[in-house]
Amino acid sequence: VLSFQLHLLSVQFGYLSFQLYRRFCQFCHQSFQLYLLSVQFGHLSFQFCRQSFQLYLLSVQFCYL
Fold first, then answer.
1. What is the pTM of this model?
2. Domain span at 51
3. pLDDT by residue (tens digit) across 19-36?
């Protein structure tokens, strides 16, 4: 009976560790998605800054015409 209880405990422990591992994988996946989003956002803001700087240069050239 004791060995059967130990077997049940090990099965429950394995199931719990599997659940924890799955949660950890989901967390890693979500954080990677967030990282990708932040990289895209940084790229977009860089493009926006570059465009606005080019517009600024154009307006300065236009003023000196």
1. 0.58
2. 1-65
3. 999 999 999 999 999 999
